Amino acid sequence: MDTKQHEQSGDWHPADVVAELRKRGTSLRKIAKANAYSHIQGALTRSWVGPEKLIAAAIGLRPEEIWPSRYQDGVSREHAEKLTRNRNARRAIRSSRQKGAA
């Protein structure tokens, strides 16, 4: 996705996401290691529910604020969460949902 596509979609540019993480003293690698992923860079350019939530939480926003184009077309995010293969990510998703309900 080039810069023009990011501007049109409203999504943050991947470099902006990485820069914001650095400002907050973390990195994609640190987030990945802390949550049992080998890598999460793919979430910057394509939909990947678990890492999107982890990255957004590290920045202090919701994923739909960083990547609005991924959340606007009626795609079932719950279905995408079910397809998340990483157990720790599934647990984190469930616990964040439970905290939000409390």
How does this structure look, described?
- The structure is a single chain.
- The mean pLDDT is 81.
- The protein has helices spanning 3-9, 14-23, 28-34, 49-59, 63-66, 77-82, 87-101.
- The chain contains seven helices and no strands.
- The chain is an all-alpha fold and 102 residues long.
- Helix 4 crosses helix 7 (87-101).
CA-CA gap between termini? 38 Å
- What is the CA-based Rg, rounded? 13 Å
Q: What percent of residues adopt helix (DSSP H or I)?
A: 55-70%
* Class from secondary-structure proportions: mainly alpha
Taken as a percent bin, the fraction of beta residues is: under 5%
Count of separate DSSP helical elements: 7
Succession of helices and strands = HHHHHHH
Largest sheet: none
pLDDT < 50 runs, ≥5 residues: none
- Mean pLDDT, nearest integer? 81
- Shape from CA axes? globular
Q: How many strand elements? A: 0
Lay out the secondary structure.
Elements: H1 3-9, H2 14-23, H3 28-34, H4 49-59, H5 63-66, H6 77-82, H7 87-101
Helix pairs in contact: 4-7
Key terms:
mainly alpha; 7 helices; 0% strand; 102 residues
Summarize the structure.
The chain has helices at about 5-10, 15-25, 30-35, 50-60, 65, 75-80, 85-100. By secondary structure, the protein is mainly α.
